[in-house]
Design goal:
- With 171 residues, the protein is of the alpha+beta class.
- 43% of the residues lie in helices and 27% in strands.
- Strands 1-2-3-4-6-5 form a six-stranded mixed sheet, with helices on both faces.
- Strand 5 and strand 6 form a beta hairpin.
- It is globular.
Length: 171
């Protein structure tokens, strides 16, 4: 798990994704990683090239089956995202002992402010495997686009359409 999370953060920095966290006294309380919709293609190519070097250690710490499942999961969830330009919430997490204390709410509010200010984005797509999270995200304005399953795991694909957006403007 540590190797995978480390890889996700490295990937985010190399591909210019947004990583944001809540801290208290230099302790990380929670964080999110968001794929931005308008990253420079040259930066993405160069970041992808650098990422290959970071991928090799991950290949040795995770089984081929696990990597195949992760890749297949991403194909299923990404195919459920709307076709127009949007952010994609890759990962959000809160220190378990701090869950229910407003850290996740602060992270989501920050993300919604970023997206609502972005003139090139229609909103945010995300996926969750936890049915309870569906209700949490709905309270923040997300709607359930698709309910599916992957390898007997329920998957809920959701989208937040930002305020004052018109889909025709983003086609």
């Amino acid at each position: 798990m540590t190797s995978f999370v480390s890889f996700m953060f490295d990937k985010s920095f190399l591909l210019h994704e947004e990583v944001w966290g809540c801290f208290e006294n230099e302790s990380l309380l929670g964080a999110y990683i968001v794929e931005k919709p308008h990253v420079n293609k040259l930066q993405s190519i160069w970041g992808g090239f650098l990422l290959i070097g970071r991928l090799f250690p991950l290949l040795f710490s995770m089984s081929g089956t696990t990597l195949h499942l992760l890749n297949s999961y991403m194909r299923v969830t990404r195919s459920s995202a709307p076709p127009w330009t949007h952010h994609y919430l890759i990962m959000i997490g809160v220190e378990p002992k701090l869950q229910g204390k407003g850290v996740g709410k602060a992270l989501l509010k920050h993300l919604l402010n970023i997206v609502n200010a972005d003139m090139n984005s229609m909103g945010i797509a995300l996926d969750t495997e936890n049915k309870e999270n569906v209700y949490l995200y709905q309270r923040f304005g997300f709607s359930l686009n698709r309910e599916t399953s992957f390898d007997n795991l329920p998957v809920y694909c959701m989208f937040y359409q930002k305020e004052n957006s018109n889909r025709e403007d983003f086609s």
